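User: Thanks for the earlier help. One more: FCRL2 protein. Can you show the sequence and predicted structure together?

Assistant: Of course, both are below.
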Amino acid sequence: LRMHHSGRHSCRGWRSNEVSQWSVSKTVTVTVRSVPLSGVSLSVQPPGGQVALRDRLVLRCTVATGTGPLTFSGHREGSGALLATDPHLELHHVGDNDSGQYWCRVSNGDSVAESDPLNVTVLDERDPRAGGDL
């Protein structure tokens, strides 16, 4: 069901007994309500949120429960810019400035929910944490 299915409904059918005729049911009122959003989470590829400089980073926002239409937005700590407007964000060549906390926000018009922040660390090959040589 969708929100626009709310309203007054009846059905009609051909009844064949002693006198064949169309028969109409009683009218019922149907009210479709949205299900509040919950269980919004953000996942990252590569797992653990550690990505090598110039590699690819993929973030995916998911919703456990809630009805739509759903709108998504992706965010990064310290950035005023909107990073994504769908549940999938892919950065093809991450840079030093892509490290930080990321989260997503989902709205269905009636409720809004956010994921917990997820830490992403961009590792430079020359950084000892990345296992490279200095």
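User: Great, one quick takeaway?

Assistant: The two ends are 60 Å apart (CA to CA).
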